[in-house]
Specification:
Radius of gyration: 13 Å
Strand content: over 45%
Order of helices and strands: EEEEEEEEEEE
Oligomer: single chain
Length: 124
């Protein structure tokens, strides 16, 4: 059974940093493309970043590239998102998600595992 449990969200001032984590169980996350997807109030799901399962290649949405870093600890079966230079528009519920084996990482309807989300609020 696929389980994804996020943690590490919170309130941070603009310009600050935060690292969110996602512990995976029921599967080996290095065998899949794994992503962070966010949902801001009143908006739909927005893909943020993906790390490839095969070659660790990383992909970022253009609004976070250069500020966010996705990584994975295979020994801990855990996914991370380091967020620096945070902006108020980064405020959202951040989900860890597994891309379907035959899916495309940039299509959020092609995911087959989701966590419950962790709230990130950027405000002074």
């Amino acid at each position: 059974q696929v389980q994804l449990v996020e943690s590490g969200g919170g309130l941070v001032q603009p310009g600050g940093s935060l690292r969110v984590s996602c512990v995976a169980s029921g599967f080996t996350c290095s065998h899949y493309h794994m992503s962070w997807v966010r949902e801001a109030p009143g908006k739909g799901l927005e893909w943020v970043s993906t790390i490839n399962g095969r070659d660790d290649r990383r992909h970022y949405y253009h609004t976070v590239e250069g500020r966010f870093t996705i990584s994975r600890d295979n020994a801990k079966n855990t996914l991370y998102l380091q967020m620096d230079s945070l902006k108020p528009e980064d405020t959202a519920l951040y989900y860890c998600a597994r891309v379907r084996i035959d899916g495309s990482y940039y299509r959020t309807n092609e995911y087959d595992g989701w966590g419950q989300g962790t709230q990130v609020t950027v405000s002074s």
